[in-house]
Every structure is written in structure tokens, then in C-alpha cells.
Give the backbone structure.
Amino acid sequence: MAPRTLSDIAIVGVGVTAQEKRSARNSLQVALDAAKLALADAGLRHTDVDGIAARWPGPGGTLLDPGSADWSTLLGVPVGWIGDSYPQGIPALVDAAGAILTGQATTVLITGGQAGVLGGGRVASYTQPGNEFVAPFGAFTAAHFALVAQRHLARYPHARRGAAEIAATIRNTGSANPDAIMHGRGPFTAEDVLGATPVVDPFTLLDLCLASEGGAAIVVTTLERARDLPRPPVVLLGAGMEWLRQQYVDPPRYEQVWSIGARAAATAFGQAGIGPSDVDVAQLYDVNSLEVARQFEALGFCGPGEGTDFASATGIGPDGKLPTCTDGGLLSFSHIGWGAPTLKIAESVRQLRGEAGDRQIAGAEVAVAAGAGSGAQYYNLALLGRAR
Amino acid sequence: MTEFTGATDPEAEELTGAFWAAARRRELVRPVCGDCGRSFFTPQLACPGCLSENWTYRTSSGRGTVYSATVVRKPPSPGFEVPFRLGVVDLEEGWSMLANLVGGPDERLPGIDAPVELTWIERDGRVLPAFTEVV
């Protein structure tokens, strides 16, 4: 029977390569590695794929752009659909669902990552837009988020310490994950975060996410097909996206971006027929400490200005009521540039399957996975659940 | 125009070349829509208020207030001496831009809504607008 609704779409495979500070491989290689892992996890062969969402990252690729159709050559399969406008994370998952629901493909591979691209620079090069109204002034990704944070903290000064507690908690979660880049680092306290090397006010090094290398991939198909595959299927319950402005060019306006994600969350929760209190694990996009608090507010877990208090009262560590960034997140597990949003989906799937090993959250049935944030001026999220 | 002005490709040059040419004369300009009168920034093909392509660069007073500001303490790339101040300035004609904050009382970080005025700095051979807190 043809799939009819979002919850007829299932994630059946996830693949995450070894995450490293600096990889000896290149972006194309780690994307292929991740694809193979995801297909093996799904119990599928590459010849089963008939839709692909990926960048042709190079080196080793074509100079033609967009070039993601070349993935069909690499995998040796003709495909019915490609997605290359934003072929990572939630937007790719939504696009893949659309492709499957409209009959363009039955099995979509989403893969990406970065490797061999981070040099010895002081700030990861991809976080520094070359734009003529940005670069000359020394702005970079974290600075855009800092300009948002400064306005928030002028209004809610207590959130500074609360944000530091969030960073410490997520980093401590990652410290216990053997696969995390920052495995074994810590434990950290809020004081450690506040006293770490300052980067851009109000943020210190420990408030900010990593810039690392590796690949991540998922395989998406119909729930009907998923029932015949080895892993417990995880279905798409709802999703939402907001695009306010091109990222990191025009500076963000606090009043516009602090709540970005609220509308997307309303869409997603509406589709799923559930609310924030039904979420068991939150794979929020933790590019910095305060941004996690912001998402609790924007997504409706608490009221405006209450994000850090909510985190503290609820508990966002593995023993808390809302375990957040259960792999250690972008702060401690890994941040692989454009591929990072797919890591959020992969960790959600592992938790919902009950296959997260030592970091498994008991009874995880609903997860939220998110991407981007206030300083980026776009945001997206997906609600995922165990198929019943 | 043959001289490098800051834009990175011919289309951007056409859109923003006049901004950087004015900057070399130490004159701050911004696009103003000829149809609806709106000032906007960064320069775009059309006015974001009414989608008219009928806009021209006009001189700004350079007076404004700080919308948000921060101190960068880690160099984003070689060539930047830290710490330096970075802010978003709301200009009195109703537009805003990212720029560095320089000088001012005790070289402090201006607070939100602090009044600022235009000054100019040079970096990598380019003349850049910057803003100073007015007491």
C-alpha cells in the first residue's frame, strides 16, 4: 500500500563514522563511509537506494555545482529523486518524506559530513562568511550568536549562569560517551564554563560547540518496507522549518530570532498530535549553551525567559526528566558542519530503538531532533517516534 | 569600475561597488527606495518593503544607537588584534549594520541603546565604517 502520511515514513538505518578533531580522510570519503554504515544498519544494499540527498563535497568530486547527481554514479544506481538544496538533517528528511509520499522514490539515502577541511586556523573557516559586510568586521558564527545573547542577558542576567550549567551538563553527558570527541574530559561545573578561555562575550570556549570531522547518514523508506527490515522502525511524527534570512550576513535581531522555531514546533507538534511534555529525549541543536535554553522556550517547554530555570528544575542530564543531547551533542560529541544536523537524527533513532548502550534513556518513545538556531536565522525540527 | 572595492563577484560589485567607493571618500551610504522611501541594508536587488528595483544610495548621517554589542577575544583570522568590539548599530534613518565599535569613553563596550557616531578605520587597505560612543 502506498504511504499516505508522515508517520508512514520510517528511518531504517543510521550510520555515524568515527568522529575526530581532524580526520585523515576527506569529506567525500566520510560521507561514503557513513552511507555504507547506514545501509548495513538498515540491512539494505546500495542497489536498493533510489533516492539520494547529499552534497558532492570534494575533493575528489566534480567542480560542477550542484553535483549531487554524481552520487548515482558513485553508488552505481539510477535514482528517481535527488535532494541537494539542503541535503542534511531535518530539511533533507522532510524532502525525502515528500519524495517517498509522492512516489518519486522508495528508499532514500541522506549522507554528509566534513573531513580534511579544518586547518590549523583559530576559527573554523566555514564559520567565517566571506561576505563583504561581515568578514571585514571580524564577525563569525559564534559572534552572531553572541550578539543575540547579549540582548537576552541584558534582560535576563541570571541566564548567564544557567547557560553555563547547561554547557557543563551536556559536556558531562558527552564525557561518558566513548564515541564522543571529548570523551573522558571533565567533569565540568558551571564555574569551569564561566572561567574558561573567553572567545566572544558572553561565551567562553566551554560554552561553544566543537568544530570537528566525520560523516553521518540515515536511510529513509516506507514503514511498510521497514517492517521487513532488521531494526525497529522509527517514524516521522511531525516536522517544521523556519527560514528567516540568509545565515550570518545581516546580523540577527533578538526580537525576531529568540523565538525562532516556535512556529516550526507548532507545526510539528500539531502534525504529531502531541505536546512538549510528551518528548522523552531532546536532541536540540547545542551550538552554544544559551541556545539550548532558547530552544526550551521557543519549542514551548517553558515560557519566555525561563529556559535556564527550566533546564535546572527539570534536569537535562541522563538522569533528568528531559535528557538532552544524550550523546554529548555538538558541545562534546561532535559538530561536523553541514553534516551535524544528521547526527541529531541518528542519536534520536538510536535512543528510540533502545540501542544506545550505556547512554540509553529508559522508555524513550518520542524524540525531538533539531537544527540551526537564533544566530543562524533559520531553524528546523522533527519529532520522531517508535513505530507501534 | 576597475578597482577592487570589496565585492567578490561582478554581480555583487554592481550591487555594492558604490557603497565601497563612497567609503573610500569616508561617506556612509545606504540604499533608499525611490518608491516607498525605505532605507535598507545590506544592499539587495530590490527594496524588501515594496520589491521595487528603483533604489539609490544616499548619504547617512552616521548617527545611531547600539542595538547589540560584544567583545571578540579570540582572533577570527590572522590580521585581527584582540580584543576588539563588534556591534550592530541602528542608524537614525531606520536601517542597521554590523560594524566595529572603536574609541569612546575608556574604550568601553557601549551598552544597548548607547548613542554612537560614525568614524572610519582602515584594515587590509580597505576603508571601513566604524562607530564611536558619544557621551
Observations:
- The longest strand of chain A covers residues 234-243.
- The radius of gyration of chain A is 19 Å.
- Residues 63 and 118 of chain A are 20 Å apart (CA to CA).
- Residues 58-63 of chain A have pLDDT under 50 and may be disordered.
